[in-house]
Amino acid sequence: MSILKALPSRRNPQAIQQYLLQEKKLRNSFISGSQVRARNFGKQFDQVQQLYGKTTGRRYYHYILSFSPEETQQLSPREVNQMGVELAEEFFGKKGYQFAVVTHTDTDHLHDHIVVNAVNLESGKKLHTSRQDLKQMKSRVNELCQSRGLQPIPQRNEGITNGEYWAAARGQDVWKEELREAIDCVRQKAKSYDDFKATLENEWGVTVTRDHGRGMTYIHPTNGKKVRGQKLGPAYDKPSLMKAFTTEKEAAYHARSQDDYEERHRKKDKLERVEEEMYRGWSL
Description:
The protein has ten helices and eight strands. The radius of gyration is 24 Å and the shape is globular.
């Protein structure tokens, strides 16, 4: 059974590139791109957006095409990547929109991350999609699955929602996984806890509330559901985040102190050599 999910995406595309191309996620994996160098797609998306002066609002569209652990046994990363490419080419590539397909193999289910530039390479026109577009994409995924002997995306009238499927397949709700992904991306770039919260809200639409010394609550940007940080896992709660930012800040401080210390000694050594040469000249 496959699942196609759309994620919110208002941040700089270089951030999603950095997250998706982590080495630990790419073992035995495949990366493809259309009208873009796949391993540098974020930077090239950003360059096109800068060219047309369209760097606000939605900057890219992010879809996840995932397969169950059982289907993962029948598919290779190459096949999964090719399905993502076929889907993206039909709905975006043919219309002049750049895209990258990154296939991850770091979980028990193979999945594609399909990232599409929201600004058209040829015309500079912004891409706008609707629920009907997503419905048509899911219909095309069903055709791709059925041609390979796989189960189609479950319909709502079959008594299962995307979230229910993910909860069963992964032991967690999809909206919570979306929050984890957003948090993982932001904390890699944030310089402080305040910067972390501001970036979450401004670029992801994720609000942090009930923020106190013992914990915090995240609010999902699309469904408005709330979850305590500790419910997402210890790494997503305030104590762990504060410790991480404090450790990084201290490490940066010590690194700067060491650089300053070495620079002072280099200058001192240089001054001593100059003075030595001066005294040698006077003694002649």
